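Please, structure for the following, as tokens.
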Amino acid sequence: MPPETVQADLAACRALLANGSKSFAAAARLLPPRVAEPATALYAFCRVADDAIDLEGGPHALAALRARLNAIHAGRPHAHPADRAFARVVARHAIPHALPEALLEGLAWDAEGRRYETPEDLEAYAARVAAAVGAIMTLLMGVRDPQAMARACDLGVAMQLTNIARDVGEDARNGRIYLPESWLREEGLDRAAFLAAPAFTPALGRVVARLLRRADALYVRAESGIAELPRDCRAAIAAARFIYAEIGRRVERGGLDSVSRRAVVPSWRKLQLMARGVRYSPSDLLAPPLDATLFLVEAVRAMPPRAEAAPQPGFQDRLVWAVELFDRLDQPRGRAMRSA
């Protein structure tokens, strides 16, 4: 592929993200160029897939996207800048087919309005729309170790659970409930009645609290994986860990009412959190993957990396861009966490 074509495709991906996914564009600026450029291609393909599901929906849209993904992995991408750019990323970084395929499946679940009976069912959804992207990002950073990959997936699931806990009211007003339905029934809550007239109750607050506790346990486990990342990537990922966990604390301080209000972490607090270093127990690194994310970890384990020397990272300070990113992430958006 001529260098000018490669650069033109990348420029087109940046334009796509700048126009439709500001949080994606900001995220790319957090990372060193050796990670930011392939991440741009990844995010652009995510955007294309998301738009296709939103606009067309149904089995036909998913089948068409799967055909595009198959062509990407076969090295014969469709004539679209995002497809060509992502095909180069897939080949260079040995991205298993199962990872982007999982994302497509999660987007399809959203489009069909799938309901989640148990917390494990919800984690299966989070594994697809969040952990799969986190796993690919970890590969772009040059890390393939199964234990580090399991912790990256923990972080993706935790962040998605936090998003869901924060946006209960917003989702309900859009006709969706992502909270585990078994938990709702245990609290005597009727799904249809809540969707008809979303309102906060102490019973709903207890469900939100349970979800946040589940996320918090995963945030703690994820820290050991952050320590396994290259030095120039750790700050950005640690910032995500602490700032998303802080969203949960803000929900708690608001009385667990995420129906009539939306928790936001102010910029000054984000700056404080970004100065924190990760502290972890070595035993956390050895914890088994979640059942929901095991298939992602195993897919990476089964695919060897390309035989080439890994680039040596250099430390760069991206604090300002990090604040910009997390300010943007606080804005309302779709449920699937494609930018994380």
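The chain has a mean pLDDT of 87. The radius of gyration is 19 Å.
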